[in-house]
């Protein structure tokens, strides 16, 4: 089913095709700069410690005026990358932001908290523990922090800062008082523990959390090995392998997608489909150049992307917009999971599409395109066939892929597939573009009814996701 023809439950006449002033090529240039400025604006707030990262400046409805370990690590991972770029001026403004983040993270790790573990999800920007009731622990948090800091440590090592790395970030001691090793030891010893999911709602074993834990351990093991802590490296690798072997448990042949959560402990009675963009976010955020695993072009990941597309397309009235006024495709806005009731403000009601979820489907589509483009051929399987057909329909409505087909990189179909995936990524990014503020500002959600932004304003993580998606688009050379 192509994006343009699915008009189920749609009220076409109520939504005019939006006039988009800038092409995506133009928009991404200014948007990239803007989202970076907005990310930085939320780091080190005046009334907090340096290095704290606001999830959003919103103080009520919802109150996001906290340092969430997950959101902060996602943000600082982007900042770290920028610092590595300019070899002539290593100690630039981004460097100082990273130093501050390291200091603040140290406070987070050593402050007594309710969960009494490194899985404590959020802190006041002053560094004080948040002691109200909350879904805790969230064990993706220490994995996120370790992954961000491991990548930062590699950048520092490449710039001759060995002493800082072995002193503050990875000391090779046991028990460890250095940031990365403390987190990795925790992850390696506790990944099997039940914990709350990234949405802070459901206790159990989560695809998302496991993906982050696994990549943190793999890349952490390389760092441990580099710093002559081979015993730890072996242990991290061994645990990562156990996680990898258990990931297939999340696959449901019957449903045709990866389920978000196994072994649920109570929780929301309305969340029954187990279809959740968290799976795609896990794939997206755990992507590793050195240790690829369940990547965006994996056929069961593509099946999950398709299931999400199909579920959200008819769910939100605003998705009746399927193209811009000039006829360019607009993909559906994507929420967290179809049954979601969290609106960010007011009582639980009907959930909305989220920018970071929509941007995730854009970014994973670009990445799938890039990964396929590097292959010699593409095999069409029962799992990837639907998503790839969705993609190629954006380029060539006559081409239909069939299970069992195989296309070498010399064929026209091969090129159509990778261009189609890029076009699908673009269609999702256009959805972000049309609901973003005129200046590209992004809140957490946009209304399922009128498309206007809602919930937390200037959500740092929204900006991060769009930045990554734009970068992946820019990396495509076709
Ligand atoms: C706050 C959490 O941050 C959010 O993820 C969750 O959906 C709501 N609580 C549920 O009320
Ligand atoms: C609620 C989201 O569910 C959660 O994933 C996020 O960490 C916080 N908001 C802060 O942005």
Describe this structure in words.
This protein has 478 residues and is mainly α. It folds into two domains: 225 residues, Glycosyltransferase (Alpha/alpha barrel); 205 residues, Glycosyltransferase. 46% of the residues lie in helices and 6% in strands. It contains 14 helices and eleven strands. The chain has a three-stranded antiparallel β-sheet with strand order 3-4-7. Strands 1-2 form a two-stranded antiparallel sheet. A hairpin with a 6-residue loop joins β3 and β4. α4 packs antiparallel against α5. The radius of gyration is 22 Å and the shape is globular.
**CATH class identity of the largest domain:** Mainly Alpha
Structural classification: mainly alpha
Molecules bound to protein? 1-deoxynojirimycin
Q: Give the fraction of residues assigned to helices.
A: 40-55%
Estimate what percentage of residues fall within beta strands.
5-15%
Task: Give the beta-strand count.
Answer: 11
Gyration radius (Cα, Å) is 22 Å
Question: Any idea what the CATH architecture of the largest domain is?
Answer: Alpha/alpha barrel
Q: Which word captures the global form?
A: globular
The CATH topology of the largest domain is what?
A: Glycosyltransferase
